[in-house]
Amino acid sequence: MKKMMSLLLAGLMTLSLAACGTGSAGESPAPSAEPQSSAPATSTVPTKVTEDVEITFWHAMSGVNEEAIQKITDDFMAQHPNIKVTLMNQGGYRDLFDKLMASAKADQLPNLSQIYSNRLSWYVDKDLVLDLTSYMDDPETGLTEEDYADIPAMFMDDCIWGDGQYAMPFNKSMMVLYYNVGMFEEAGLEVPTTWDEWAAAAEKLTKDTDGDGEPDVYGIVFANDLSTDIAPWLKQAGGATMNEETNELYFDTPETKEAIEFLNGMFQKKVARLAGEDQNSNVPLQQGRAAMCVASTSALPYIEADTLEGITIDAAALPGYKTDDQLYYGTNVTIFDTGSDAQKQASWEYLRFLTSTENTAYFAAQTGYIPVRMSAQDDPVFAAVLEEKPIKQMCFDNMERGFQGTRNIGGINALDALGDQLDLVFSGQKDVDTALKDAQINGEKAMAEAQNS
Amino acid sequence: MSTKLRRCLVRAATYLILVAGAAFILLPFVWMILTSLKPSAEVLLMPPKWLPSRIQWENYVEAFESAPFLRYFCNSVIVTVLITTGELITTILAAFAFSQLRFRGREVLFLLLVATMMVPGEILVIPNFVTLAKLGWVDTYKALALPWCASVFSIFLLRQQFSSIPEDFHKAARVDGCKDLRYLFTVLVPMSRPTVVSIALLKIINSWNSYLWPLIATNTNDMRTLPVGLAFFSTEAGVKYNTLMAFSLMIILPTLVVYLFTQKYIIRGVSNTGLKG
Amino acid sequence: MGSERLPLRVWARRSGLKAWLYLLPALLILGVFQIYPVFKSFLMGFYTKFDYLTDTVYEWGLDNFVNLLHDADFALAIQNTCILVVLAAPLSIAVSLVFAVLLNSNIRLRRVFQSIYFLPFVTSMVAVSIAWSWMLNKDFGLVNSVLKLFGISKVAWLTTPDMTIPILVVLAVWKGLGYRVIILLAGLQGIDRRYYAAARVDGARGLSRFFHITIPMLKPTLVFLSITTVIDVFKTFDEVYVMYSNDPGPLKSGLTIVYYIFTKFYRHWEFASAAAASFVLFLMIFAITLLQFLFTSRSRREGRR
Fold first, then answer.
1. Which are the contacts of B5, defined by CB distance < 8 A and separation ≥ 6?
2. Which of A332, A382, A426, C145 could be bridged to A361 by S-S, CB 3.0 to 4.6 A?
3. Which of C268, C271, C273 to probe the A interface (max A CBs under 10 A)?
4. What is the predicted ipTM?
């Protein structure tokens, strides 16, 4: 069964890829649910790589994620016998970024790597990254107008610095509000869509059954590194974390203050907490110790696998306030400016393949991530997944309102400075005004220091 | 009578302390072993279940299959042997010079070496990688082993041991026309056996468990060592604790065996000395 | 030493060369992989405007050190680390010494006990720290349920800032017990049993034998252990990193100097600040080690007289 499925998949993929590459129309040769036109199965994918080349792709994906990449890569090599792609799992993201740093210093960067754009900005600044523009414009192996229209602008913008494009979006997920369906029904509550409803729901759902003053069920649990992803609440209050052009920080603004006071209100009422000892915010939700949590859709496979019996978990977009902005995150794949021209061309062709409709759909179907192309919704494999998992459909439906985090060099440092202050606020040791003032000062200092190297 | 009672009490106290210490040490391990046998739904349960509802040996199979275990295992063995041998040679020679030979700047040089121990290893990783890259050694056994083939810690330890051996031995040997090198390996080293074995053992354990360096210094699966496999159980959204623990326990096992084998060399039995009271 | 210099000059010169030959292999490796990178990173502490990748320096200065002085986090890191060292280093050595001496006596199951004590040392700190954080969980951890038996109410071990240092102290004792016991045992085995036999003839009791024979004879080992243990504790990092899941403890109560350096270097990419902080750490440990050396060598000389 599994084998048949993968055969079918492989077949579909070759077909539609060919279609994508040549853009020619024809009769569909196989009885498939493919809505788009297909080219004859014999046609080859255009490539400009004539000699044998080897390229390396560093990633931080393990388990099913790694298997999915491996499968896509094997398909690519089957179609491009002269290109050999070596996949290298470099451990977790932190390990990968450490290793990239060491390699940059030793002039040993790989051809391709997964990387967050707030890390990539430093490499772009150092001229270590290949500008993909000319490859993307290539009439034969580039992207078409349809491709550009197909990839959500927020994902594409995340890869663009100035006039150049330095990466392609790869594994993306959305920050969502997971909730315990049973608890909401019992309390007769609707899923909150505004801050006010949210705070009210959190209050109503918090329970202290043994009466020791410490809630046994918290209304809402946030991730421990709340500050890194604080952007959606600042945006929803009409503000922002920082200015990407001028490096100006907006920590000490009325908008930020409003957002922090809203969150802090829930903390001080003891209806919200950080994950703390539970490490991931979804863990207490899965075990019935929380009614809601804010987490990434990439946690979905874990929630599906390890939720306590009798608990049903669903997810909704984050409740809005003045605006309804939704945070999307995840890495891109970049090509470093290293190796021969043939390697660069091969890397680009591989990257294009990796992010084609069929492959991004396959990757998203196998993992907790979402596809980086709108057309993936029509992909037969992924359409079935969407049917089964409405949460993934929700990710698509909210893309219009989506944004990705800022990418300033030193931005992480500034946000950490904010995070230190937020910890003090949430634990009741500092008032919001002083904390935000200090965050602004410390953040500016941290950012300036990060930019002197 | 009273001395007998006293002795009895001392004895009882001794065992009490030893058993309490053992319990304190063992608890986390019992927990690790139990976790490694649990189905994943029971791992993070709050309140925790001590005993798994059913023993899931599959975790070990899964842990074994999640990485090219045998290849990694062989690499770990090769690298550990290389490092330990290399370190023993450099350490014995250097400790001899520092404890038995006189030369200008001996104390200063020694202090300089001890001083390098004070720098956190984390910041040496990148410069060392750059050095090896310049030599073109990335992804070789040389890169995995060479940086660790000398250790100030061991030189220091062995120097302390050598200097506790009276210098008269050395003088006598010199009078007998015994060359330094022969004196070192036929007299000093055997006399310091417990320390030398300890050094080897500590090094074996260290290199066996090292994680960051093998990850940085290698680029292919063919060259990676066992602890690198630990990374495969964590993702950004969660950690598979049961298989992680199973894998960790499989990594511990060989070092434990080596330890059990060597501990008799560290302690000569009381009976051997023939001087038991 | 002064009195020996003249007649031994020729010999000293010869053995000087020989000594360097003996040292060569170790120095070669240490020079390339320890001394050189340490030196380079110290230099970087003085870069104020530079390109990290190409090692091009545009400006030198003391700014990084000045920044450190004004950084509340760095002060906190120094404070935490010093408290930790003062508590953990003597305690670890004392506890290890007790166990080593007990193990060195004629007891049953010695090997079994010894192997058990050694376990933490052969285990990866990652797995062990995870196990510890479960045991310390406020609501469901083992430690609190044991305390409950004695009528002590729940302690939020991992989320109360004041608990962090005590936990790290216990962890340091626990983690290093096995290896310190091994080193001490090796030292104890080096003591000639005839001393004990003679003492027994003189009628010396257990405790007095311990203080008059064991401790003085064990001195080289103890000096070694006190220096390396202080250095080790100064460099505490892994335990914090894993136990508090990549966080320096509640409200930074577990922020050690190495944690500070690590964050600056690997998370914030503030390489020069990290280098400057390592330099300060180095100076601190160096000063303490120098004191330890001076103290022990003076008492050794006095002992001889």
1. none
2. A382
3. C268
4. 0.84
